[in-house]
Design goal:
Length: 71
């Protein structure tokens, strides 16, 4: 992930968001998580924004009912 948006395409932008979504969901590979970690370390404000995003999305999570039969 880079901070530069000059010369980026919409696909690059989408991939950055997908990378962050995987990171937040705990689905990143070790290499991808390390890449995001380096990107976050470049600017402390990024971590603050990501933490705010985590908090806001956590409030949207619904509890999974245990008595639901999906079959």
């Amino acid at each position: 992930m880079t901070d530069s948006t000059r010369g980026s395409t919409p696909d690059d932008h989408d991939e950055r968001w997908e990378t962050l979504a995987r990171y937040l969901a705990g689905e990143s590979s070790a290499a991808e998580a390390a890449q995001v970690g380096r990107w976050l370390a470049e600017d402390p404000r990024r971590g603050e924004v990501l933490d705010a995003l985590r908090r806001s999305t956590a409030s949207l999570e619904l509890p999974v009912p245990h008595d639901v039969d999906v079959d």
